[in-house]
From TrEMBL:
It comes from the Eukaryota. It comes from Zea mays. The chain crosses the membrane at residues 16-34, 41-58. This is Catalytic/ hydrolase. The keyword Transferase does not apply.
Length: 383
């Protein structure tokens, strides 16, 4: 693990050196083109100034180091954790019936700014009736789970597999994913299909640059997003190394999802947004999610979700050997329902459940958690 960390550090230094060289090259090319008549002294002064600017810029865009739980200066470890294949730790929380008497084992992957304390909000009565053991976990870099600088859709799926193995959930288990955390659901179809008995995704977030989407419609819907969100997604895709600086500076537009400023078209979503801001819940959740560093939680999430999907995209996937259900509100202000319909129509094997009058935060819809869990666990291949 130490060798891996050293390798990562060397790569970061090499990347920084290359970026600095690029900046200096641009400066030299500019001087050569427009400063041909300048004296050597003036050129030297300009070169020194350009070097200082480049150095300042590289320091400004470099994210601060993370502060993992349990390390000197880091937050304390308060939750149960399991150790993963690469030595990292994943924090989790359990609900429902005990593992030893459960008929169904369900893993829950939370959304953006969430934590292990989130769930589909199925009633305790239903969990008891069906015999459901549910485990939710802090995704890598969130809450009390160690950061993963190499985080990707594949690593998200393997984290879930490692969690299931460490807790003894058996050869197969069910998976429920919410919002941005659903990239782990698509990745599970791709990388660990042999481990799942069923999958349900709640308003899974979409990358507008997926090749399988209709380009004209994707551009049109992308253009309807707040300007700050459009620019944040551009940076996450084209210059992920710049994202921390971009989100930290005060004079350029940044994500309204991160700061909670964007109103929602759905009445329940908007009511909950205003309430969470007024009672402090929005900021307390954000502090809990980012206590090890905002770079390895929020911004790593944005980079993984809205960056380049090089190995696969959802519309590339083949039908898995288990049922897949997708629940989507038709008043979702975060995920355009038109694009969700396109993905499900193209795949064919996804059981698509469109919810009239529902927004993005489906776990807040009364009774919907029971419906989602009942639907997933009663599917023929789930038994």
């Amino acid at each position: 693990m130490a060798a891996g960390a050293a390798s990562t550090g060397n790569w970061s230094r090499a990347t920084g050196a290359m970026r600095a060289a690029m900046v200096l090259w641009v400066c030299l090319a500019y001087m050569r083109g427009v400063c041909e008549d300048w004296s050597p002294l003036r050129l030297l002064v300009l070169l020194v100034a350009a070097t200082l600017v480049a150095r300042w810029f590289l320091n400004a865009v470099r994210p601060p180091p993370s502060t993992p739980c349990g390390t000197p200066g880091g937050p304390p470890v308060t939750a149960p954790r399991v150790r993963l294949r690469d030595g990292r730790y994943l924090a989790y929380a359990q609900s429902g019936v005990s593992r030893d008497r459960a008929r169904f084992k369900v893993v829950y992957s939370h959304g953006f700014s969430g934590s292990r304390m989130d769930s589909p909000r199925a009633s305790q009565e239903l969990l008891e009736e069906l015999g459901v053991y549910m485990v939710a976990f802090d995704r890598a870099g969130y809450g009390e789970s160690d950061p993963d600088p190499r985080r990707s859709p594949e690593s998200a799926a393997l984290d879930i597999q490692d969690l299931a193995d460490a807790l003894g959930l058996g050869d197969k288990f069910h998976l429920v994913c919410s919002s941005l955390g659903s990239h782990a659901g698509w990745a599970a179809v791709r990388y660990i299909p042999h481990r799942l008995a069923g999958l349900a995704m709640m308003a899974p977030v979409i990358n507008y640059r997926w090749r399988g989407l209709p380009r004209g419609l994707a551009r049109q819907l992308y253009g309807r997003q707040p300007v700050g969100d459009q620019w944040s997604l551009r940076v996450a895709y084209y210059a992920p190394w710049l994202l921390h600086w971009w989100m930290s500076q005060p004079w350029l537009p940044t994500s309204t999802v991160v700061d909670g400023s964007a109103p929602f078209p759905n009445a329940l979503d908007e009511k909950n947004r205003v309430m969470a801001l007024s009672n402090g819940m929005f900021h307390s959740r954000a502090r809990l999610a980012t206590q090890q560093g905002v770079q390895e939680s929020f911004y790593r999430d944005m980079t993984v979700m809205f960056g380049r999907w090089t190995d696969f995209e959802p519309t590339d996937l083949e039908k898995p050997p288990f049922p897949v259900h997708l629940f989507q509100g038709d008043e979702d202000g975060v995920v355009p329902v038109q694009l969700q319909r396109h993905i499900c129509n193209k795949l064919g094997w996804v059981s698509y459940h469109e919810l009239p009058g529902a927004g993005h935060f489906l776990s807040a819809v009364p009774g919907l958690g029971d419906r989602i869990l009942s639907t997933l666990l009663s599917s023929p291949a789930s038994a």
